[in-house]
Amino acid sequence: MKFLNPPTLFLVIISLTMCSDQTCAMNSMYSSHVPNKGAYWPSWSIDFPPSAIDTTLFTHVYYAFLSPSNVTFKFEIDYPTALSLKNFTTTLHEKKPSIKTLFSTGGAGEDLKILFSRMALGHDSRKSFICSTIEVARKFEFDGVDLDWEFPQTPTDMVNFRHLLHEWRVAVKKEARSSGRPQLLLSAATYYKPEITLDNVYRTYPVASINKNLDWINAMCYDYHGGWDLTATGAHAALYDPNSNVSTSYGLHSWIKAKLKKEKLVMGLPLYGHSWQLKDPSLYGIGAPAVDIGPGDKGQMSYIEVEKFNAQNNAMVVYDLSTVSVYSVAGTSWIGYDDVRSVKSKIEYARTLKIGGYFFWAVDGDKDWKISQEGMLQFYIQF
Ligand SMILES: *[C@@H]1O[C@H](CO)[C@@H](O)[C@H](O)[C@H]1NC(C)=O
Ligand SMILES: *[C@@H]1O[C@H](CO)[C@@H](O)[C@H](O)[C@H]1NC(C)=O
Ligand SMILES: *[C@@H]1O[C@H](CO)[C@@H](O)[C@H](O)[C@H]1NC(C)=O
């Protein structure tokens, strides 16, 4: 907060005091200019409780993840999870009353794809899911819900996704009217671009419905390369790729070209890297021949772990201008990741595009808040 200059602070206070719990035109006008600076909190990170989150750096924090029952499509929350949910929202709201907390449902995993596909298929199952998200959000004092369906697999899934968004917004509006509370926020984590051709099935997100029914989307601008392709190293969150369209710049432009409202587009930034074992340590560039995954958990390492690895192994660290990414090399170990410089450039890029903001996966991967702070310093007022 200390970076806010007095006129801005004044504006914030005015807009807050003029807002009742009812819908407030001024608040929504103002909020469209406030950058969305989000971070996901993995609820399984044992040594990183919600109290460890530096809330001055974020506007939105997501609880990752909750899954609905694959039979009833409702959330069946056990006692430890209930405590964890309550602790998350209470801790964050106490530290920073204006912060928005959302619980994220879904995540990576084959089972979840199938579960969401089945849930979205019928009106009754969508209704069960929707009602349960609202109940859970209200019960545990969340400000909203984030749907992390990775990813709708067919054109039919996309049609059902569209029905879901529409019905979800109708339900959320209705609940707000009857409870007299602000509407719950609705967001979704999406593929880095609106068109998906994975598994040779072409499908595209319902952009008009997203504009109408979601508050924003978190475009996952990472995992472009990884342990699923062992033949060559890759910049897994490249801003640019001179040889292909698999890049953040292409993804963001594609969303804008598909007419997603710019302020609803939020760019993903990874606080982790992907690693490979080089075939020949003297060939170490991006795209160099590889033979296996490298250090880390199945070839993935958080930024903290990468920094530690680099120090312990006296790694060579290279900033690659053509992709706006970083890699480190120690012997045959190769790690591609983002650091303060690359994130700074990406946020500058996002700001030039005038999109809604950025988010990190995941909040516990930063070291001494070095990367997260970069966004805060640059974008505390305008974005
Ligand atoms: C639901 O999930 C359980 C455990 O994850 C699994 O055993 C079961 O087969 C699933 N049921 C359906 C209908 O997918
Ligand atoms: C949250 O959990 C932590 C660790 O278990 C505990 O110290 C803290 O008091 C809890 N906070 C709230 C608000 O429940
Ligand atoms: C990239 O996308 C553009 C249009 O979106 C297309 O014309 C071009 O062929 C693509 N390039 C590659 C390398 O796939």
Summarize the structure in words.
The protein is an alpha/beta fold and 383 residues long. It has a single domain (35-273, 338-379), classed as Glycosidases (TIM Barrel). 37% of the residues lie in helices and 22% in strands. The protein has 11 helices and 16 strands. An 8-stranded parallel beta barrel has the order 1-2-3-4-5-8-9-16, surrounded by 7 helices. Strands 10, 11, 12, 13, 14 and 15 form a 6-stranded antiparallel beta sheet that branches. The protein is globular and about 65 Å long. The structure holds 2-acetamido-2-deoxy-beta-D-glucopyranose (3 copies). Residues 49, 87, 90-91 line the site of one 2-acetamido-2-deoxy-beta-D-glucopyranose. One 2-acetamido-2-deoxy-beta-D-glucopyranose binds at residues 49, 87, 90-91.
What's the structural blueprint in terms of helices and strands?
Blueprint (H helix, E strand, L loop, with lengths): L5 H12 L7 H7 L4 E7 L17 E7 L12 H17 L4 E8 L2 H12 L1 H17 L4 E6 L5 H25 L5 E6 L4 E2 L6 E2 L2 H7 L2 E4 L28 H10 L7 E6 L1 E7 L11 E4 L6 E3 H10 L3 E5 L4 E6 L2 E5 L2 H14 L3 E5 L8 H10 L4
Parallel strand pairs: 1-2, 1-16, 2-3, 3-4, 4-5, 5-8, 8-9, 9-16
Antiparallel strand pairs: 6-7, 10-11, 10-12, 10-15, 13-14, 14-15
Helix pairs in contact: 4-5, 5-6, 6-7, 10-11
Bound molecules: 2-acetamido-2-deoxy-beta-D-glucopyranose (3 copies).
The site of one 2-acetamido-2-deoxy-beta-D-glucopyranose has 2 residues, from loops.
